[in-house]
Design goal:
This protein is α+β, with helices and mostly antiparallel strands. It has helices spanning about 85-95, 135-140, 150-160, 165-175, and strands spanning about 5-15, 20-30, 35-40, 45-50, 55-65, 70, 75, 95-100, 100-110, 120-125, 130, 140-150.
């Protein structure tokens, strides 16, 4: 196991809002020199691969930071919930879907050079529409809900029409979990 080669000399929160905090760390880098590192502290996040009859639920919305339309899987922050509870909440809020068949299929660190965020990916099999409150859909500007095949989603990724990292990682984990992507 490789050893940790960074040392933290001191830490200070330099920005805080309801979604994240920015921490300034004075560090002793692997070279032995002192340096500065800024870390975005975030609650864990979830992505949901909701499937019905081999179709996967996607949402589309305008993402302000990158100033473009984004096709994504339902996703969001854990807030105060456990990851599975957050996944169920996010799926319902963003799509009006629920499922009685949930399974965690993996996780990843979306920006481990910048943030301590950890993402959990859940499969919601046999998802069904039950209606939703639409709070997230309105607040986040969700404009579209679609059912898509896995080959269609892979095509969107390949063409650059789906660029959301959380969604791409979730699709890779789904492909590995289902055996469509060989794992060694």
């Amino acid at each position: 196991m490789p050893k940790k080669d960074w040392q933290t000399l001191n830490q200070q929160i330099v920005h805080e809002n309801p979604w994240y905090r920015v921490r300034h760390d004075r560090t002793l880098m692997p070279s032995g020199a002192e340096g500065n590192y800024f870390v975005v502290e975030r609650a864990p996040t979830v992505a949901v691969v909701a499937i019905t009859n081999s179709l996967i639920a996607t949402v589309g919305l305008w993402r302000y930071p990158v100033d473009r339309y984004s096709i994504e899987l339902p996703a969001g922050s854990c807030e105060d919930d456990e990851p599975l509870a957050a996944a169920k909440r996010e799926l319902w809020e963003e799509t009006g879907l629920e499922s009685d068949h949930w399974r965690r299929i993996g996780g990843f660190d979306p920006m481990n050079g910048l943030s301590d965020e950890t993402s959990h990916v859940f499969l919601a099999d046999r998802a069904k529409w039950v209606g939703g409150n639409g709070r997230d859909a309105r607040d986040e500007g969700i404009q579209d809900f679609s059912w898509r095949t896995l080959p269609e989603i892979i095509g969107l990724i390949h063409r650059g029409a789906m660029q959301d990292a959380m969604s791409i990682c979730a699709i890779m984990l789904l492909a590995a979990d289902t055996g469509l992507l060989p794992v060694q």
